[in-house]
Amino acid sequence: MATRSILQSGRHCCCLPNLMVNLFLILKRFACRRHFNILKKPMLKLSENPPMIWPAESSIKDFTGVWWIAHTKSRNEKALAWQMQKKNISYFLPMTEKVYRKSRRIMRSMLPLFSGYVFFCGDENARLEVLKTNRVAQILHINDQRHIVEELLPIEKALTNGAELAPHNYIKAGQRCKVVAGPLMGIEGFVAEDQSKTRLILQVDILGKATCLDIDAALLEIIDSSQ
Fold first, then answer.
1. Is the pTM of this model over 0.85?
2. Does residue 184 contact residue 138 with C-beta atoms inside 8 Å?
3. Which residues contact 212 (CB under 8 A, 6 or more apart)?
């Protein structure tokens, strides 16, 4: 009845465009809110993240087969790790805990140390299974198998001992040192000084990436490069 009266009254015809505009704005607002709710994903609890090493309770030094590096599609590292676990493919996904504040709440999340990369080990069938996940942009072949394990072992040891690792710029040269005491004893890396802090830098040459941890300088011993 209201619509009919508006149509019948010439002086109210000008109200129709305003009604249409208001209706359009309401529908647009509803559609945007619905679209946002669909895209919004709940944050994983720390316990819901994939294990950094699979099989669990193992060490990468015990992995058998050929090492590869999966260069994942954007933000697919964890999803790929879950699928590798289901396929029982040995992998290493170094992650670090990030703490930040959001809407007056303290949030915690696990982020890959080397964004976009997952290290895995196995045979040719394992490589093909990883490709079938559709979460990989490419798989990097590693020529020096021994060297990649030597680079990853210190990172694994630091993480399993609760050290806080953070991404760091890759450096081409520097003073190389070894940890001589404490739970991280035996780890080697480059040393950098930053605002009275001593940082041990652990690098992965094939990726041109690095991570670091703060350490007491008294625990370090310089490695003689001439030896």
1. no
2. no
3. 165, 166, 167, 168, 192, 199, 200, 201, 202
